[in-house]
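Our collaborator T.R. sent over the components below with a one-line note: 'Predict the complex.' Nothing else. No constraints on interfaces, no templates requested, no preferences about which chain binds where. So this is a plain run: every listed entity goes in together, and whatever single assembly comes back becomes the starting point for the next discussion.
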Amino acid sequence: MSRVLFLQFFMEVVATAAIFAVLPRIARRGLLFGVYVGAEGWSSAAARAVTTAWYRWMAMVTVGSLVLFAAAARWWSETGAFLAGSLVLVFGCLFAYFRSHYAARRLALDTPPPAVTLLDDEPPAAIGIPLLTVALVVLAVAGMCAYAMAHYGEMPERIPVHFDAEGHPDGWASKSVFQVLLLPAMTLVFGSFLGVMAVMLLHAKRGLRHPGTVASAEAGRRFRSAISRFLCGMTVAVTGMFALIHVGQVRAALGDEASLEPLVFVVAIGMTALSVAGVVYLMARYGQAGARLEEAGGAASGELTDGLADNRFWKWGLFYINREDPSIFVEKRFGLGYTINLGNPRAIALIVGFFLALIALVVVAAVLG
Amino acid sequence: MPVLVVRGSSEPVYSQIARQIRERIVAGELRSGRSLPAVRTLAQDLGVNLNTVARAYRQLEEEGFVRIRERSGAEVVPPPPVPTGADRERMTAELRKLFARMRQAGLVPDELRRIAEVEIGRLAGQSPRGSS
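Returned assembly:
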């Protein structure tokens, strides 16, 4: 088993399991595994029993995944071990979630609390950092294009386009301007999408409480700013990583086959570590959508309202579907971050457009290759 | 300053929004010149259609409480000047017509009196619309 593969899997399991396991600890008061059970029901013995069962299942899933991975790696193959371990992890987490979700549904409120909004002014959203991020992405992509085109004439007719886990080329294609500029194009699509998301999240639907509406709005505003900044940081990191890989690819095409090797470790471990560190910080500092700030500010005792409290708008506690609601991004009911309003055609167009752009790039590259 | 909306209430959502904003203006909590949030902000928070909030703002504009701005939101307008003798006579005539219509619809004088008392009671303790 290669060191990189083992480290990658180990980190994947430990980080996923640890983050998932502690999600109930950071949840907003009233939300239990994607179900709104009310502030009172949330503190009940029945709710605690559901959470305890979740911890037990997550421990079993983590251990099961690692044991299967080790056994398969020992007696089968590394790829098989990675696949089998990951499948146990993913399906184990899903099973534990749905089990807890359906248990929590028995505690759901019959009548949702009223929806609430505020007539008070909120400070304008600070979009400077997201805009700067998009500008950086555009600059980086321009630099990547310039670097590739400056060396285009020196490249052979067949150039490497795919690399194995150790960073050695294992796939080649005919040289073309599109092949050479594919990674910059993907960087532009990916970076722009993340940058636009960082702006849009600042205007996401507010999950307000009543009473305590003003304090919960402030907690939510601070959380939205923080997650937007986090997204900007990740965008810069991903863009930087793509730029490094691009330089490595060009160097490899020019005959320097070892050029990608030092980057493998950064790609496999660095990005995972960076994103996990960011998520852990957000969880510890803010909690789910600012839950910790709400608790500290004494605003957590009010009932959540509308988008988060009305169980009729949520499918399995994961998908928000409200055709009336003009919101695109909505707080997740379980976990950290935001999901989209599947009842809003603009939200669906955003996601579909992003994936279509990526797929189109890959398909065109495959056809030309 | 929260605004609450109860889904499934007999009072339409737009009316609930308009009524609560009107009450705040009458009570002097929302003074003239004060901006109201953008239509989208209210619609997102309440999970209702943009048209529902826009309709509430339009109703308040027709009643003379707010002015709708070019870019979505609205602004509380200054209160009308203190009514003169002729104004008072015109308002009283309007009220007289309204009571006559209600009487024609079958409401007995005691019911009319009760309605009037309730509405006056709502205004009691609220200062007139203030100006900034």
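Summary for T.R.: Chain A touches chain B at residues 112, 114-121, 205-206, 208, 210-211, 213-214, 306-307, 310, 313, 322, 324-327 (CB under 8 Å).
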